[in-house]
Amino acid sequence: MMKKSLSILSACIVLGCSVLWQGCAAGKGLERWPSRQIDRPFTIPKGMSQWSSSLIYSHLDDPTGPKDYFLPWPLTWRTPLSDDWTLHWLPIPLMVSHQVHWDGTTRFGLVLAPVSGFGVRTTGPSVLSTTVALSFRQKLGADTALDASASCVYWVDDRFTHHRSELDLRAGPFFQVADGFALSPFGKVELIEDRGIFAGGNYQGFFDIPSDGAVFGLGASLGLVLDRQWDMDLYYQYGGLGNEDATRSHTAALSFDHNW
Fold first, then answer.
1. Given the DSSP bridges, would you call strands 181-195 and 248-259 parallel, antiparallel or unpaired?
2. What's the rounded Cα separation, in Å, for the pair 150 and 133?
3. Burial 83-102 (b: 16+ CB within 10 A, else e)
4. What is the residue-wise DSSP string for 79-146?
5. Under a CB-based contact definition with an 8 Å cutoff, are residues 207 and 69 in contact?
6. Alpha-carbon separation of residue 176 from 39, 141, 146, 194 (angstroms)
7. Who wins on pLDDT, 124 or 215?
8. C-alpha distance from residue 45 to each of 20, 101, 112, 173, 200 (Å)
9. What is the pTM of this model?
């Protein structure tokens, strides 16, 4: 009887693993997802799904002393509504991306997130943010492109007494160094109006400098295609160039994408 029960249990485990594997198996849309990052559309194609897991570390030096933050974000799930619309589950669907134009050379997209972030003020109340972002890519050749983006983030506390507005502008070249290996350095400027909010982080995981005015930064991202269904991305950003109060930040992120 014990052997029969173990056999049934083993069969159930094998069946469960098989169902899970099939659920993560490559869908038809994956065939239209290029392995060269420079050729990828802004949104994932219909028939494909993607989940991401990230670990973010940020070090902040300000007049009050150094601070370190860790933000693990275990799961972001993306499902396409069509070839040009993708819904982001965080884990609830609070973000949508739209590909406005992509002809293989010029790419333009936008992201709308009514609730894009969360955190706490240094004085206690919780805060939420809303984000609108634009992304542009112009291919200059088979392996090079110019990337530019703009995002506007508005933070407000739960008492609606304090707010923080951020306009982030960044641009830089994109290099397809080899198939499945891409490098993208960038420069950025943040225009910040801070009225009492320093938020801990957002769904993208990048921490903000408590400041008011213009903050300049540099960074780079490196993308690797591990195989047809797995991508890895490394990200680094240095912020605080030209900041009058000597506040500086270092942010590093490691993320894995599973495509099926």
1. unpaired
2. 6
3. bbebebebeeebbbbbbeeb
4. EEEETTEEEEESSSEEEEEEEEEESSSEEEEEEEEEEEEEEE-TTS-EEEEEEEEEEEEEE-SSSEEE
5. yes
6. 9, 10, 12, 38
7. 215
8. 22, 14, 18, 25, 33
9. 0.81
What 3-state class would DSSP assign to 30? helix
Q: Which domain CATH number covers 215?
A: 2.40.160
**CB neighbourhood size of 256 (10 A):** 14
Q: Strand ranges (DSSP E) for 121-242?
A: 126-139, 144-157, 163-178, 181-195, 201-202, 213-227, 230-241
Structure tokens at 213: 């005015």
Q: Distance between the two ends of the chain, CA-based, in angstroms?
A: 40
Task: Specify the number of domains making up the chain.
Answer: 1
Question: pLDDT (tens digit, 9 = 90+) per residue, 173-225?
Answer: 999 999 999 999 999 998 877 655 444 444 343 445 555 677 789 999 999 99
- Report the C-alpha gap between 218 and 200 in whole angstroms: 21
Q: Residue 201, class by beta-carbon neighbours within 10 Å (0-12 exposed, 13-18 middle, 19+ buried)? A: buried
Q: Are 183 and 177 in contact (CB under 8 A)?
A: yes
Strands 213-227 and 181-195: antiparallel
Cis geometry, peptide bond prior to residue 91 (ω within 30 degrees of 0): yes
Question: Which secondary structure element, helix H or strand E, spans residue 252, and what is its range?
Answer: strand 248-259
Asked if residue 246 lies in contact with residue 215, where contact means CB atoms within 8 angstroms, the answer is no
Domain that holds residue 28: 2-259
**Closest-CA residue to 197 (of 207, 188, 205):** 207
